[in-house]
Design a protein that fits this description.
Elements (H helix, E strand, L loop, with lengths): L21 E8 L7 E8 L4 E5 L6 H9 L6 E6 L2 E2 L10 E4 L11 H11 L4 H14 L15 H13 L5 E5 L7 H18 L2 E6 L2 H7 L2 E6 L2 E6 L1 H6 L4 H6 L4 E11 L2 E6 L4 E6 L9 E6 L5 E3 L9 E11 L3 E8 L4 E7 L14 E5 L5 E4 L2
Parallel strand pairs: 3-8, 3-9, 6-7, 7-8
Antiparallel strand pairs: 1-2, 1-4, 4-5, 9-10, 11-12, 11-14, 12-13, 14-20, 15-19, 16-17, 16-19, 17-18
Helix pairs in contact: 2-3, 2-4
Length: about 375
């Protein structure tokens, strides 16, 4: 009988013996009127696709420019592949950067745009031609060699810009909102293309984006930034399911938040009283939180169930009235006003047609959820 074994290989960031490929060490940046970065530190491992995620003005693009060498930090160091590059000029770093605007030359055709950096390096014509041909095949642009930028779609321009960055085989590729100019459908398709390209060539990517879906889809890990600081680093799953603060929970996806107080501990459960939700709630939580601590109780909308029947168990349910329904094709979002006046959000998949759904505007319903699907935030 054949034996089967689970793949127990750990990710690099879970391996205490793994050596980081990029080390950002206590980076701060100050201008005359602002401080966009405040003592930022993180590590990225070889072949990762690591995202810096945050709203506009949080410091993520300034951090990317420091990694590229376009900006110098006011304090801190940057190491790439074991070398301190903090004082190394941009043109000597093993780094390439893909800009949001793509910055491809309008007077050069696709091949000439891609070959530009190779010609600057004075490589032979035959080597340049071979490299350009290979990279065109990689980004699925074979046959477009002689086209000019004004003859290309937005997605094709994006791939030209990517090919120009990759053809020089940098150790690190930095991407500043690379998909922002694309429409929603093309952006979603290109996300998977970028991930597949990154995996096939094995170059480390650091991506800056404000788009949560983009970061969640593409990243091996991501850092959520706010006010010049990193608030949490983790896999997309960990950050979505286990945010470490109200700031992160509110930024990543929709969430219901209620202020409450710890009443008691029961093995791996804690009881929380919340006047905003008008009920005693329990949550699965392994950490020790003192009784009387003020916390935030959080539930994702897709974890909430809806019924017209009152639940049999005593906790984790509330009665309300449906005030709004947002139909988004695959799901519907229900905005339910509860007795405290707060509005809770719940989402359900649309398994039935619109006319066959069980819940309508002004219906009285019960919202309920499992204790393991709630989150307790102390910061």
């Amino acid at each position: 009988m054949e034996e089967s074994f689970l793949n127990t290989k750990r990710a690099a960031w879970e391996d205490p013996g793994a050596v980081p490929f990029v080390v950002v060490q206590n980076i701060s940046k100050s201008f005359s009127s602002s401080s966009p970065l405040k003592d930022v530190s993180f590590t990225v491992y070889k072949n990762e696709l690591f995202s810096l995620l945050g709203h506009s003005g949080c410091g993520k693009t300034t951090l990317l420019r420091i990694l590229a060498g376009f900006e110098k930090p006011s304090a801190g160091r940057v190491f790439i592949d074991g070398i301190d590059v903090t004082e190394i000029p941009v043109f000597k770093r093993p780094v390439n950067m893909m800009f949001q605007s793509y910055a491809i030359f309008p007077h050069l055709n696709v091949s000439e745009n891609i070959a530009f950096g190779l010609r600057q390096d004075k490589l032979s014509k035959s080597v340049i031609n071979d490299k350009v041909r290979d990279i065109l095949r990689l980004v699925n642009l074979s046959g477009f060699e002689l086209r000019f930028p004004d003859q290309l779609s937005g997605g094709q321009k994006q791939r030209v810009a990517l090919a120009r960055c990759l053809v020089k085989q940098p150790k690190l590729l930095l991407l500043d909102e690379p998909l922002a100019a694309l429409d929603k459908t093309l952006r979603e398709l290109t996300q998977f293309e970028l991930v597949n390209i990154q995996e096939s060539i094995g170059i480390t990517f650091i991506l800056v984006t404000h788009d949560q879906g983009e970061a969640m889809t593409m990243s091996s890990r991501m850092a959520v930034m706010d006010e010049g600081k990193i608030r949490q680093i983790g896999t997309p799953h960990d950050i979505y399911e286990f945010p470490n603060s109200k700031c992160v929970a509110k930024f990543i996806g929709k969430i219901n938040l209620f202020e409450g107080v710890i009443l008691e501990h029961q093995l791996d459960q804690i009881l929380i009283e919340s006047k905003e939700i008008s009920c005693i709630c329990n949550a699965t939580h392994t950490g020790a939180i003192p009784i009387g601590t003020r916390v935030t109780y959080a539930i994702r909308p897709e974890k909430i169930m809806i019924s017209t029947l009152r639940p049999a168990y005593p906790r984790n349910w509330v009665k309300g009235v449906i005030k709004e329904i947002a139909y988004v094709g695959n799901i519907s979002t229900y905005y339910v006003q509860i007795s405290s006046g707060k509005v809770m959000i719940a989402t359900l998949p649309n398994l039935l047609r619109l006319d066959d759904r069980n819940f309508q505007w002004e219906d009285e319903v019960y919202l309920f959820w499992r204790s393991e699907n709630s989150i307790v935030l102390t910061t």
